[in-house]
Amino acid sequence: MEKKRDKCELCGKDLLYATQEGDYKNLICEFCGNIFAANIYCEDGHYICDSCHIKGPVEVIEEICEKTKIKDPFILADKIMSHPKFKLYGPEHHILTPAVILTSLKNNNVKKPNGQEITFFDVKEAIRRASKIPGGWCGFYGSCGAGMGSGIAISIFTGATPSRNEPRSLANKITSKALNKIADNLEHCCKRSVKLTIYETLEFLRENFSIDLNYLPKKCKFSLLNDKCEKNKCLFY
Fold this sequence. Notes:
- The chain is mainly α.
- The chain has helices at residues 50-53, 57-67, 73-81, 92-107, 120-130, 137-140, 145-158, 165-182, 190-209; strands spanning 15-17, 25-28, 35-38, 40-42.
- The strands form two sheets. The chain has a two-stranded antiparallel ribbon. A two-stranded antiparallel ribbon has the order 2-3.
């Protein structure tokens, strides 16, 4: 019987192990962007350094969002969700959603309604706020944390406070739109909720602020990993 090979956590192809000096490769870590003399890498050349392997999901979100130049929020979300510290399900997705939305706006040089630039401070504030949403919120409290992340993003984007009528209303409106899409009578899926929320937020920005970012979700790369995937019933399968 053929021995099973360890798999790349990014693409699922076989991992290769260098045992001779000539087999080592200078590769760029997929997450931190630093170059390493790598002795474990996949047949397509993907490599994750040890430091990134041991990071927690919140650290991963913060570090990647700080350094990345990626403009497409769907590509950025997929990159972060591909990290080995990201599970198929979990509250890290609540944090991911507003961080990715604001990072995408920042990298597209979109200004806030008051003319100010979106900064990494705004991204960290989104991470701080979203970190307070516990896991299981979708079923236990009827409000998916990823969907709530859209409200956090728009709140920071508009400078909303409880006493600012229009910005507060806009933050609540986008949350309601995202949650309405997530309430699809399918098996709960954090990846689907993230993608639906990003899509609804981009539509909301176009409709309310004339911000036209023509990014569309890509085919889901997590379907084969998820035994509960709804497959053809899901928009992203």
